Amino acid sequence: MHPLPTLEEQFLKQFYEPAMRNHRLRTISERFDWAKEHYEQLHRHQLPFALATFKRVLYRRG
Fold it and tell me: From which domain of life does this come (predicted)?
């Protein structure tokens, strides 16, 4: 059985990677904001993803 993906892995795979392929989003901060908005729309019934976690993911990705 495969382990469940962490929140960071899920965010990167489902939201940040598609933002990187979106050519209208040119800067890292634009991509990150787009991914964060889409994450929050999908998971608005849950607690919001902590900004600290977003920043940690962002700096790891460079």
Answer: Bacteria
